[in-house]
Amino acid sequence: MARVRVFVQAGDPISAVGLASYIRAQPGMLVVPSRLPADADVALTVTDRVSADFLGALTKAAQAAPLPTVVATDHVDPEQAPSLHRCRVVALLPRSAATSSRLASAVMEAATGGAVTSLAEQADNLRREIAGPDGAMLAPRELTVLQLMADGHDTPEIADIMACSDRMVKSIILSATKRFNVHNRVHAVACALRAGLI
Amino acid sequence: MARVRVFVQAGDPISAVGLASYIRAQPGMLVVPSRLPADADVALTVTDRVSADFLGALTKAAQAAPLPTVVATDHVDPEQAPSLHRCRVVALLPRSAATSSRLASAVMEAATGGAVTSLAEQADNLRREIAGPDGAMLAPRELTVLQLMADGHDTPEIADIMACSDRMVKSIILSATKRFNVHNRVHAVACALRAGLI
DNA sequence: AACTGCGTTCGACGAACGCGCAACGCGTTT
DNA sequence: AAACGCGTTGCGCGTTCGTCGAACGCAGTT
């Protein structure tokens, strides 16, 4: 292969030219114009979080020109992880720690189709690298309570679903709010949602 | 002024080189190395959302070298808006629609200290430009209340921030929960968060 | 076995929330 | 002017939440 042709895609122009600069600085790569995705070997995208919306856009783009895709992001929604391979995503990179060499090697591997690590494993690595060791700090019960609250259930309903008393549910919420240093249950749910934990 | 010296700052390397590329492409501007913020005329930053954390980092940076600052972002937390001028923020741009000319003119105005529109007005314009016509599904006050709740504030705090009574805040929440057919305020915040409205 | 720390469970009380009803100001309609 | 809608605020009620304290079981320590 002569030079790897990279199709660059981003939700905002700033990130787009940032990615393009990285690729242009690589001797073995060049950026293909956004009008000609079919001429590329690899797609390179960046996003705040891999959400359903983002994957939808990716799917649409993949129908026009199916390319192996590298994604730079800081978060992958757990429920979206299984859909990644359908969009031909072959590599996940940490956006906030994307070095020139990491980007380049990921794009090169994607272009040559080599060394495809499991996407689930990559997503896990990403979560660990981004969130640090804190990400694993929630107990399973806390997770359940947070999810149920986010779905609109109040304390007695949660107690019923989890087969325990109201007091227990409140205790779980209390311990979680104190440990994460948030003000109340709304704040806790919002933080968990933003952190992608639920 | 000979050339405008711009100090570029971003949470991730991709956006940083993106911004730098934009500035370098401008004939009248140059990028100062990140080690020499004191040599710059203007600071240019980019962030997903103007949160308390982001403003904290900005404040710390401003202590080292107080510069008029241009921020490219897609969202400004309403409660942070009053703090913007303390961090010497003079312009807000839509990140997802940041064109070369908009960036350049904002940086130039910041450097010359001219044409300072009200920051609150700029924040409003930003919200309108980002959300588009879909954002019209929620009234502006509902959006504010939801954001404040997501940041952990309770009813009297929100009433204080929005300069109205507790009853009014509750009325806004009540009308929103009825209109969106959700069970309570936690559910409302979770839905808004998942829909990307806040 | 007695002690100690830690997580779990429950009771209780003040504060906050969910919500209906009534009233006031203010612009628009007729 | 009268009628109407709409946003705002207040009052009050029952329900739920936030939080402290205490009791219990269960490791590991000595």
From TrEMBL, chains A, B:
GO BP, one annotated term: regulation of DNA-templated transcription
GO MF, one example: DNA binding
InterPro entries per the UniProt record, alphabetical: Sig_transdc_resp-reg_C-effctor, Tscrpt_reg_LuxR_C, WH-like_DNA-bd_sf
Record's protein name: DNA-binding NarL/FixJ family response regulator
Domain HTH luxR-type, first and last residues per copy: 131-196
PANTHER family: DNA-BINDING TRANSCRIPTIONAL ACTIVATOR DEVR_DOSR
CDD domains: LuxR_C_like (cd06170)
Keywords of this entry: DNA-binding, Transcription, Transcription regulation
Spans traversing the lipid bilayer: none
A Pfam family matched in the record: GerE
